[in-house]
Each structure stands twice: as C-alpha cells, then as structure tokens.
C-alpha cells in the first residue's frame, strides 16, 4: 500500500515538474525605473521576452506616462492621435505581453521620449528564457498538468 503511494507521488512529480511554464515579470529599467536619460535599449538588449511575460513600468506620476505606439511613433516620439488608447498613468503600470512581434512604448511628456524614455522590444513565442536577476518568476500550470495531477490524486485516494 505504501509503495503505491510512493509510485503515485513520483508519477505526479514527473508529470508536473518538467512541464511547469515560467512567466517573467520584467521591471523596466530595473531600479532606475521609467525615466528620461536612461538607455532602455541597452537594458533590453540581453533580455528575451515571451508571450505571457509582463512589463512593469515604475515611475512618478505625474509627470510621466506610458504610451504604446507603433514603429513610426517610436522613431518620431509621437503619441497616438486616436483616443482609443489612453496613456497609462498609475506609476506602476503592468503590461502583459499577449502577442509576438515588436512592441514600442514611449513617455509623451514634454521631450522625455527624445531624452531616451522609450522602449522597443521583440516578443517571442515559446517557453520563457531563464530569468534575469531583475525578474520575478511565477508558476503557470496548463490544463493538461492539472488534469494529470487530478488523475494521480484519484489514483492515490482509490489505492488508500
């Protein structure tokens, strides 16, 4: 009876541990936060961003904000002209990366974007890369993993 429980426990560990997906929360600029006169491209250079990761913009509000823009808006430091996308202004804005591709963010206050308060990243599909030192890790279980854990749990209960 005890050997069945041990086998069930080992099975559960084998099913769950290797398939845990890790999402990363990136603090933009690390301890520097979101501000002018900082090289965000250098900050992002060695990082790999994946769908499911989160960007966290920390800054004093006002005066700063975060606008999601397109490539032209990024290059020219121009905020969107439509009202369907208001700026983020909380001072602790979290943006979940939901799709792959290039993402561009700027601060639209005065000349802050021209002073470097802008970020361009590329979001990749697939499992997240190992976390950089500034990232916070979290566990995300797939439906398959939860289903398999439930099956093993029923197996343990029946065997007991």
Automatic annotation (TrEMBL):
GO molecular function terms noted in the UniProt entry: electron transfer activity; metal ion binding
A Pfam family that the UniProt record links to this protein: Cu_bind_like
Annotated keywords: Copper, Disulfide bond, Electron transport, Glycoprotein, Membrane, Metal-binding, Signal, Transmembrane, Transmembrane helix, Transport
Domain Phytocyanin intervals: 24-125
GO cellular component terms listed in the entry, alphabetical order: plasma membrane
Membrane topology: Single-pass type I membrane protein
Record has Transmembrane as a keyword: yes
SUPFAM superfamilies in alphabetical order: Cupredoxins
Signal peptide stretch: 1-23
InterPro entries referenced in this protein's UniProt entry, alphabetically: Cupredoxin, Phytocyanin-like, Phytocyanin_dom
GO BP annotations, alphabetical order: response to symbiotic fungus
Localization, UniProt: Membrane
Metal-binding keyword on record: yes
Identification of the protein by name: Phytocyanin domain-containing protein
TM annotation in the entry: 139-159
């Amino acid at each position: 009876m005890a050997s069945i429980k041990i086998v069930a426990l080992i099975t559960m560990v084998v099913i769950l541990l290797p398939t845990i997906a890790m999402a990363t929360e990136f603090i933009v600029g690390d301890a520097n936060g979101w501000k002018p006169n900082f090289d965000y491209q250098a900050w992002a250079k060695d990082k790999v961003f994946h769908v499911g990761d989160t960007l966290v913009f920390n800054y004093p509000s006002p005066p700063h904000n975060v606008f999601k823009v397109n490539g032209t808006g990024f290059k020219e430091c121009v905020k969107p002209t439509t009202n369907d996308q208001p700026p983020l202004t909380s001072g602790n804005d979290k943006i979940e990366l939901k799709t792959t591709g290039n993402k561009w963010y700027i601060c639209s206050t005065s000349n802050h974007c021209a002073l470097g308060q802008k970020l361009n990243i590329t979001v990749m599909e697939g499992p997240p890369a190992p976390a950089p030192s500034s990232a916070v890790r979290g566990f995300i279980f797939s439906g398959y993993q939860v289903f398999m854990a439930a099956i093993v749990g029923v197996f343990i209960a029946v065997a007991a």
